[in-house]
Amino acid sequence: MAPVTPTLPASTAMLHYYLLQAGGGEDTTGAGLLVEEFVLDDDLSAVRLRSACWTAAAAGWWSSAAFVRAVRTDPRLRSRLTAVNRPGAEAAYGRLGGGALPDEDTLRRHFSDDVPLAAGTPLRLGTGPAVHRVLFAGEPDGDAIARLSALLRLGAAPGTDVTEPGVVGTGRLRVNDTNHLWRLRRVGGVAWSIDVTSDPAGGDGLRWVLRQVTDVARYHGLVPATIERLS
């Protein structure tokens, strides 16, 4: 693949939006929006998950660590979520009676009950480059995984053994002078991850690549739980 120069967003700390479907029937009072953001350390590992939720039945925005934890552990609650982009969130918010969706800086002011994420000494996997693992909750069906694999351009990268346990395939992209490689992996039979490596380490675009692969996975039924730095 030819080298590319990504168009980096003005702020790489962009929010994740999810449409929350009503619990059932025609009552839409349980419908709303969930807005989230991972706070990253200097090494790009996640140290906190911040969030706020708005529902048609509630008087304003509310923040709950217990709720976002439940999203990642309760399949029934997770099935009510649909990942959307900012325009999709704006349309849903207006349709549900919220009016104009506040800008991202204003939304961050509603983040009040954060989830701390474990940060410790990186797990050593070997002598190769550091791995950034985006860990996901969710159980997409086979068609969703096939579409995700296609969008991640998964295949056999040179020097990569795709028969490694749990690995579905690998993809790669050269950004400026840095080679990025990612693997979609089944983790312990209960979760998914996308493992990203960069060569040379710390090169341009790693944050951008992490954002892109995370968003592709979100739109195919996976909910990011954390970003770990392995080495």
Give a description of the structure:
The structure is a single chain. The chain is of the alpha+beta class and 231 residues long. It is 22% helix and 32% strand. The strands form 2 sheets. Strands 1, 2, 3, 4, 5 and 6 form a 6-stranded antiparallel β-sheet that branches. It has a 5-stranded antiparallel β-sheet with strand order 8-9-10-7-11. A hairpin with a 2-residue loop joins strand 8 (167-175) and strand 9. The longest helix has 13 residues, at 206-218. Mean pLDDT is 84; it is low at 1-12.
Write the SSE topology.
Elements: E1 16-20, E2 32-40, E3 46-55, E4 61-62, H1 65-73, H2 75-78, E5 81-84, H3 86-95, H4 104-108, E6 115-116, E7 131-137, H5 142-151, E8 167-175, E9 178-187, E10 191-199, H6 206-218, E11 223-230
Antiparallel strand pairs: 1-2, 1-5, 2-3, 3-4, 3-6, 7-10, 7-11, 8-9, 9-10
List keywords for this structure.
single chain, 231 residues, alpha+beta, six-stranded antiparallel sheet, five-stranded antiparallel sheet
